[in-house]
Design a protein that fits this description.
The chain is mostly helical. The protein has one domain: Ferritin, CATH 1.20.1260. Helices cover 79% and strands 0% of the residues. It has 6 helices and no strands. α2 runs antiparallel to α3, α2 runs antiparallel to α5 and α5 packs antiparallel against α6. The longest helix is centred in the last third of the chain and has 29 residues. It is globular and about 45 Å long. The structure holds fe (ii) ion (FE2) (2 copies). One fe (ii) ion (FE2) binds next to α6.
Length: 157
């Protein structure tokens, strides 16, 4: 069920990438939302709410492209920390504020790596519009990683 010129040029590999990134971004929303909701400190809560909003914008972009291609947007079940463990390949149930930022850095770094690969692929395939968005999102993730790393450094417990 493909509609229009732009949509019909989307191949299966791209669709699966969009779903993969939708999942990654949705997970980031859930992870940061858990931090924002449980934040005891007002500033810390605001930071994480800001991250939630940005990651939600990323997720929405992929959801929109997936829908426009006539595909089903994936849905997820399970706890955020279970997903985090799946994502980075270890258990992360018991963590405090410092470790939350450190885990956030790990997740952002993983996202950054994936974005760089996707950007290279989209260059090869000439997906100019998508590639521009990917660059913007990559920069967001890089800023997130920098902020989280800096915060963790100055709040060691
Ligand atoms: Fe993101
Ligand atoms: Fe991010």
């Amino acid at each position: 069920m493909k509609k229009g010129k732009e949509q019909s040029s989307m191949d299966d590999k791209l669709i699966s990438r969009l779903k993969e990134f939708y999942k990654l971004e949705t997970f980031q929303v859930a992870f940061y939302k858990a931090q924002a909701d449980s934040a005891a400190n007002e500033y810390y809560g605001k930071v994480f709410q800001k991250l939630v909003n940005i990651e939600q914008g990323h997720a929405d972009y992929y959801a929109d492209l997936i829908e426009r291609a006539g595909e089903v947007v994936p849905s997820f079940i399970g706890s955020v920390f279970k997903l985090a463990g799946d994502f980075i390949g270890e258990g992360v149930e018991q963590i405090g504020q410092h470790d939350t930022c450190t885990l956030g850095v790990m997740l952002e770094n993983k996202a950054i790596k994936k974005y760089r690969t996707f950007i290279k692929e989209s260059k090869d395939k000439n997906y100019i519009e998508i590639r521009n968005k990917l660059m913007e999102f990559l920069l967001d993730e890089e800023f997130h990683a920098l902020w989280l790393r800096e915060y963790a450094k100055h709040h060691p417990n």
